[in-house]
Automatic annotation (TrEMBL):
This is Class I SAM-dependent methyltransferase. GO terms for molecular function: methyltransferase activity. One of its GO terms (biological process) is methylation. CDD domains: AdoMet_MTases (cd02440). Keywords: Methyltransferase, Transferase. It comes from Agathobaculum hominis. It comes from the Bacteria. The keyword Ligase does not apply. Residues 46-145 form the Methyltransferase type domain.
Amino acid sequence: MSFFENTRKPAGFSGKIMVAMMNFGHSAMAAWGLHFLQPAPDAMVLDCGCGGGANIKTLLKLCPKGKVQGIDYSAVSVEKARKVNAGAIAAGQCTVQQASVAELPFEAEQFDVVTAFETVYFWPELAQNFREVYRVLKPGGTFFICNEANGETAKDDKWTRIINGMTIYTDADLKVYLEQAGFDRVQSHKNKKGWLCVTAQK
């Protein structure tokens, strides 16, 4: 397995390095994307594919009276995310568990916001996975996707060649899948770096 395969499902020592790198390397993109998401201070938030937990930490600051839960299917990511957010977990404001977006371990209509940073590239069945996100969102809730690649530049092809199972979607692609899952009011934002943020409402 190449080092970059660890972006998909971090494992072992190199996975720990990758998770630490992602926490740092994606921070600017996440900060940019979060300008387009304004959760209520008491929002219930789920971060799907939470990686090393840096975005959970940011979301906890945005929702100081709410609760942020994280899931990731990598045990290495879950371990790191729990360490990064140990204080909030101890305070009962946060939980992180190993799980897949294909079968979210939550009752229907639990969350005001579901976020997905740099992760939908690796979701195996996008339409079904989006329906699962739709299920756990409350009516009126927001699904927020933030990607470093928007599928419109030649450099994106490099990553799909290096990383097995990676698919880079354009905003138009994502809109189709989101609407198939039942979402509406789909909005997308892009910047000069090729970053993409998409929000959709239940």
